[in-house]
Design a protein that fits this description.
- Helices cover 91% and strands 0% of the residues.
- Helix 3 packs across helix 4.
- The longest helix is centred in the first third of the chain and has 72 residues.
- It is mainly α and 116 residues long.
- It starts with a helix and ends with a helix.
- It folds into 2 domains: 52 residues; 38 residues, no CATH class.
- It contains 4 helices and no strands.
Length: 116
């Protein structure tokens, strides 16, 4: 009878050892999964901040595109103004010509004055 208890206790000890090994293995795997999860969360957080930054850039670029579209619409007017300036330049002194060319607000007044 003592022999049976000894064998049963040995069997139980071996099963406990196997279960401890499995527990250690699963605990190690769980720790590795947790580390990967934390890295993934950090990556997602960094990606979110990049997307937010790009969203702001997208809005800024759209504003610049709209400004460029407005500039493109003014090209014919600027070309006409430049041509008028070159035609009438010989009748004006150089200082006045440069000021008119640089300041488009006065250039319209200048065109009206010279009836161009």
């Amino acid at each position: 009878m003592a022999f049976d208890y000894f064998h049963k206790s040995q069997f139980l000890f071996s099963q406990v050892a196997v279960l401890k090994d499995r527990l250690n293995k699963f605990t190690k795997e769980a720790a590795e999964v947790e580390i990967k999860l934390n890295k993934t969360k950090e990556t997602i957080s960094a990606a979110d901040s990049l997307v937010e930054g790009l969203e702001g850039e997208f809005e800024r670029w759209n504003g610049e595109v709209k400004a460029m579209e407005g500039d493109l619409k003014r090209i014919p007017q600027s070309a006409l103004l430049g041509a008028a300036f070159l035609v009438r330049r010989r009748n004006l002194n150089l200082f006045f010509s440069i000021n008119v060319f640089e300041n488009t607000g006065n250039a319209r007044l200048w065109l009206f004055y010279w009836k161009i």
